[in-house]
């Protein structure tokens, strides 16, 4: 299956969702990966990949290495291998690898091409569309970076065979997010099909990628509708922050955040109790956590204001309108939010 | 005088060439400058500039600080002052300040706007058009960076009043470069007018900016004709390298490089002796150096291949065709180049 993405500035690329075929590049190619992905899958990739000159740079695994020092490691490798402006980087790993490889490609000699070969479900459905690249620093996550679109994305479900069950669930949470906010038919389909079967996960990836692409095409630089992709994130970021990023995977925190956003949507009569329950059942089907105990409600509330999206002291909430549509609002009254947070106490 | 630039992707901005009027920005603004420019002109700028919140970051002066550590200094200042995606950086200085401020703006929260207020003649005619931003590293000059267009450029000839005479000449060399390669009428005008007069330098800046803009619009990412802006640079880079970047200003090395390129053009019968002489006379009118003693001709020749533009072991020469037109070629025979270099021995 192929999904073609064409952005308003005419940038165009294909997302291919199937087992990797032989790929040939008539340029120098550097594969950026980490020891975990490399251990499982590098031989598999090398067998499929032909390039004028191929080299590998292995960077340390983990969000804590998503910084400028690691970007320098990648760039140094490129300079030492004398990559020119026609050369290519391949991101081979999860979201962290994709974000960093894209950013390195965007600044090497003022920008060269890169290709995404995402190996986690989350990066397959999420990080491979949108063009956001970047790194963290002491001030926060993804605060330095660039918009840089890939030249191509290859999604091979085979890589999911070695993915831990929790990481699979975190990816499914993003898929459910896409359905709840934008696509009711897709939600109905998700209720009826088991994503652990390969033929189904391919369809779900395709539908998620198409849904996200439609949003990104309308709003590449996130001035409007693209913010809806952050459904579950307003609450999720606070949960990640409160638990020092070491308790939940990002997709899991977003899952809990969706439950909280739904409770607020029910309170504001945007969603009914039955719809709220159906989302919860779907999340729990894949063992995605749906409960969280807030220690201090006022403290939790104050954390919303640390988010870079909460400008002018207003909190931006993405709230589902029934299932398949959503409302972006920064006009929710504090008392309503507090009332909802009390349900998680 | 205003020159409007509109790029193929619809990005558009104005270059205003006149004494600064009051400028008002309804956002947070950070001015990036260095101690030299700040000492002469910061009060003048502050008097003209109004912003929602204004702060200054002063970075060390000199090409040797054009690196990632200085970019981090700028970014840290922006984070500490909590700049958001609507905030603005102002580059207030020469080409180094412009290149670094533009690069910092391009990666801060995946890209914010920046404004150029260039204070040297070279940056007024050259660095303020083209969108090239970046830094040096141990592998070479401008090897890491981005294409990022300014939101506006303000060129105030008043700043030239404190510019050392050699730096003024280096800027004039770039103006002459533009005329020789692209615009015969402009060259004739330059022969007849004294650029040390303010009314003339304004016209010369305008014509240079327009000429460069026309080239950049046709070829933003330098796949073809934009390479012609490197007239004088193929030789100039070797001269800068041989003299460890501490003997000539960049514009001066380019001036000598133009003399060498012209000699090669005469040898290949693209230009006649009289035209060659007229370019030399014009350069010497502003005390731009036109002679250079090559120590070792084979060594000089081998240095051409270190240039990132000399792919596939071919040297790219930009050679004037008469005056007002030029040829981009990588087909010049080594013996012809050597023969010409012997004239500088």
From TrEMBL, chains A, B:
**Which Gene Ontology cellular component terms are annotated?**
cytoplasm
Q: Which Gene3D superfamilies match?
A: 3.40.50.1970, Dehydroquinate synthase-like - alpha domain
| Binding-site residues, NAD(+) | 61-66, 95-99, 119-120, 132, 141, 159-162
Give the reaction(s) catalysed: 7-phospho-2-dehydro-3-deoxy-D-arabino-heptonate = 3-dehydroquinate + phosphate
Binding site residues for Zn(2+):
174, 233, 250
How many cofactors are bound and how? Answer: Binds 1 divalent metal cation per subunit. Can use either Co(2+) or Zn(2+).
| Domain annotation 3-dehydroquinate synthase N-terminal: ranges | 57-168
Reply yes or no: does the keyword Lyase apply. yes
Q: Identify the cofactor(s).
A: Zn(2+); NAD(+); Co(2+)
Q: Which UniProt keywords apply?
A: Amino-acid biosynthesis, Aromatic amino acid biosynthesis, Cobalt, Cytoplasm, Lyase, Metal-binding, NAD, Nucleotide-binding, Zinc
Q: Which Pfam families match?
A: DHQ_synthase, DHQS_C
Main location (coarse class): cytoplasm
- Which of the seven top EC classes does this enzyme belong to? lyase
According to the UniProt entry, its GO molecular function terms are: 3-dehydroquinate synthase activity; metal ion binding; nucleotide binding
Q: Where in the cell is it found?
A: Cytoplasm
Gene Ontology BP terms: amino acid biosynthetic process; aromatic amino acid family biosynthetic process; chorismate biosynthetic process
Biological or metabolic pathway of the protein: Metabolic intermediate biosynthesis; chorismate biosynthesis; chorismate from D-erythrose 4-phosphate and phosphoenolpyruvate: step 2/7
Q: Identify the residues that the record assigns to the 3-dehydroquinate synthase C-terminal domain, covering every copy.
A: 171-310
The record's EC number reads: 4.2.3.4
Q: Does the keyword Ribonucleoprotein apply?
A: no
Function, as annotated: Catalyzes the conversion of 3-deoxy-D-arabino-heptulosonate 7-phosphate (DAHP) to dehydroquinate (DHQ).
Family to which this protein belongs: Belongs to the sugar phosphate cyclases superfamily. Dehydroquinate synthase family.
- This protein is called 3-dehydroquinate synthase
